[in-house]
């Protein structure tokens, strides 16, 4: 998966992105929990869609868990900001 695909997947289905990336890196839930200081149960619930990850949790997973570079992280955040602005424009 290239950077653009990873960003798109992380935006559209964050839980599926976490699971797919964790498996691609050969990590167990415990491995990812150890890298991010999040609980295995919490990560599992994100992966299966039982919990919605707040932005700070997403950043921890992307940066600490999957070692995203600055370019990818900034592109991800720019898309989130763009989506928020579009949402506000439509709502008003």
Characterize this entry briefly.
The chain is an all-alpha fold and 92 residues long. It is built from 6 helices and no strands. Residues 18-52 form the HTH cro/C1-type domain.
Shape: globular
SSE-based structural type: mainly alpha
Q: Count the helices. How many?
A: 6
How many domains? Answer: 1
Question: And the CATH topology?
Answer: 434 Repressor (Amino-terminal Domain)
CATH architectural name: Orthogonal Bundle
- SSE pattern, N- to C-terminal: HHHHHH
CATH superfamily: lambda repressor-like DNA-binding domains
CATH class: Mainly Alpha
Low-confidence stretches: none
Note the gap between the termini.
Answer: 37 Å
Number of strands: 0
Helix content: over 70%
For the sheet with most strands, the description reads: none
Could you outline the blueprint of secondary structure elements for this entry?
Blueprint: H1 3-12, H2 14-24, H3 29-36, H4 40-47, H5 55-65, H6 70-91
Helix pairs in contact: 1-2, 1-6, 2-4, 3-4, 3-5
Description:
- The protein is mostly helical and 92 residues long.
- The protein has a single domain, classed as 434 Repressor (Amino-terminal Domain), CATH 1.10.260.40.
- Helix content is 76%, strand content 0%.
- The longest helix has 22 residues, at 70-91.
Main attributes of the structure:
Helix-turn-helix domain-containing protein; 434 Repressor (Amino-terminal Domain); 6 helices; single chain; Lambda_DNA-bd_dom_sf; globular; mainly alpha; 92 residues
């Amino acid at each position: 998966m290239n950077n653009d695909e990873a960003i798109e997947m992380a935006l559209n289905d964050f839980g599926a992105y976490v699971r797919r990336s964790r498996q691609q890196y050969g990590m167990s839930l415990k491995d990812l929990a150890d890298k991010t200081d999040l609980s295995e149960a919490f990560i599992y619930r994100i992966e299966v869609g039982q919990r919605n990850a707040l932005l700070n949790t997403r950043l921890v997973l992307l940066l600490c868990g999957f070692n995203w570079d600055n370019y990818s992280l900034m592109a991800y955040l720019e898309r989130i900001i763009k989506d928020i602005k579009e949402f506000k424009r439509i709502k008003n």
